[in-house]
Fold these 4 entries.
Entry 1:
Amino acid sequence: MNKEWSEQNKRMQSLIGKPDTFEEGKAVLFRLRNDLMDTLLSFKKDLNREEFDAMPFMNADGYHSKNIAYSLWHVFRIEDIVAHTLVNGDEEVLFSGNYQSRTGSPIITTGNELVKEQISGFTKQLDIDELYSYVADVKKSTEEIIRNLKYGDLKAKIPAERKEILQSSGVVSDDENAVWLIDYWCKKDVRGLVQMPFSRHWIMHIEACLRIKNKLK
């Protein structure tokens, strides 16, 4: 893991765990996310359209077996679902911003159910400019939710009715590679969700994307 990102992530986790450093922890999280976003934006500048779909490690184990367009969709669909349906109990950006139509996506899920050629088949249908607009809107809306969190909110569990909404909405596939996500998220408290989909999950996928980019270039 990138040492600087790893250190920022560890520091954030430590700071948000105490009432008197909670706000400082949020600030560290926002700086980390901005640094990671700079890397995501560099892909838009440095890669051509075909390279977003390229899968040089298709048969490997790990996040680098995907492609960069998939990783953008996957990371921010998960963040959108977790931030809005589970934490805030409101409408996901995908729907409020009409992003399924705008991106040309054939799916509304996280994409966990897709494998190998299915991934590149999916991403070739995406409008990359609109995908980046979705990324930016999800990031902004999540950070507004986090900004409004109080320290006492961190121990809150996900209400059962929100889990039921998630299960019935179709945003998580019932494929065995995806359906486990529902219990995984809903067993965590808000602090656990901040520490994974909103931070560590970004790092893991962006590092995989950098590995793909380096192979392509």
Entry 2:
Amino acid sequence: MTDQTNHSENDHDDAHKDDGRKPDRNGEHQQSDTEQQDEPDDDKKPSVFKKPLFWVILIVVVGGLIVGGVLYWLHARQFESTDDAFVDTHIVRLAPQVAGTLVQVADIDNRHVEAGRLLAVIKASGRDAQVAEAQANESQARAQFAQAQAQVTAAEAQRQQAAAQARVPMAAAVKAQQDLARYEALLRLDPSAVAGQQLDQARATARQTAADAAAAREQIDTATAQISVARKQVGAAKSVIDARRAQVEQANVTIGDLRLTAPVAGQVVNRSVNVGSYVAPGTQLMAIVPDTMWVTANFKETQLTLMKIGQPVDIHVDAYPGVDFKGHVDSIQRGAGQAFALLPPQNATGNYVKVVQRVPVRIVFDAKNGPDPKRYPIGPGMSVVPTVKVR
């Protein structure tokens, strides 16, 4: 009885396990259609687009992007910037005017010097002798000038002497002429009042005294001409003195050119010579970067619409990204950079393609409103990014 009961339970369990399933080809059971219809559809979820929270978040994000974009545009339109900019200055290149050997060169590579600092000394052969020769020529010219002045004095004295000597014959000539005129008047009144011999004597005396007076006048004229000649010699001697003095000054200038000093204050760079080097006129010895520097920014021509002189500028040097230098617009070049090129473009030939041109703008550092660029090793050619506030 017990065995039959257990057998019935086992059969009932097997029938319950196999209910609603039938084996497939692989030996697995498949769920019946009735069971599939009775099971609830728990795996299906509502679409995310039907949730109100999604649309709220989407509207907030889009609105934030629009507001942010508008604010960024309103802020960005106030500035004009370019990365085509660099530090610029007028580099002073030192070169001698005379040839010679360097006997002294200051060891000041990449160091700051003040104006007037001695940088190099050149030894030139024969310069002292040239100075001495020029001075000797000047002394000789001065001696000739003194001699010419003495000749003027002598000529004036000779003229005075000739004038004094001429008084006697000129007075005698006047008296003889008066006597002759009186005899001739008496002769016209009474022919017997004057003897013929006496009249001839008076005429001869008048002629002789007139000749003596003329000779005296010639001596005076000769003395006067000698004075003029002596004065011209004085002028010529003075001109020679000026020429000799110029030669002395030139020789002294040449001696001064043997000492090269710093014309401006700045940093000495690119020294290419040393003691013992032979240099010729025009040979570059070294260069000086002045303390005064600025930024040359090549803005597009379309960026200059609102740009004016005096507008503030934020200067970012690539070498110092954490330092914000300040400056202002100093000047704007009248003309694009290509107009001043060695070979300017000829747009009248070939096919023309319009290209936005670049215009150099000079920007000056403002040490009062920001960091002092002199405290940083900033030099010409270094890249910067200036931002000009145009609104």
Entry 3:
Amino acid sequence: MSISYYDFNNLSKESQLELVMAAGKLISETYKNDLKVVLYEVSFFSVEIVYNTINGKVASFSAFQNKTIK
């Protein structure tokens, strides 16, 4: 599935999370204190989701446009 960074940002947070879980490619996962930081690749941008490991809820959610080198 291909979606642009801008179209992704226009989705609701719930739809963004669903799309990342369904179509995102896991890039990395790390833990720091009570947080789990997971980085996904979706189309041509990246999404970072930070989970609170104590309650299992999303603590923060950010999308980053990947830079291309020409």
Entry 4:
Amino acid sequence: MAKRSFHGYGVDERGQRMIGKTFPRTRPREFVANLPAGTVAIEACGSAQHYRARTFRAYGYEVRLIAPQFVKPYI
């Protein structure tokens, strides 16, 4: 998650890219509400991400919070 934007990146079970979109930070709910439930990984760097994790869980997602040093390969 960036300061002003939300980057959604999705892969299938084989690791092939399925989704790659950037949204204003205020719209991640709209992004996840229209996708089938699955696993979401979020960089765990502040309390805002824990809020987002609770939001995603409410939509039926399994949420994994990962340390910032492990996020770099996905950028």
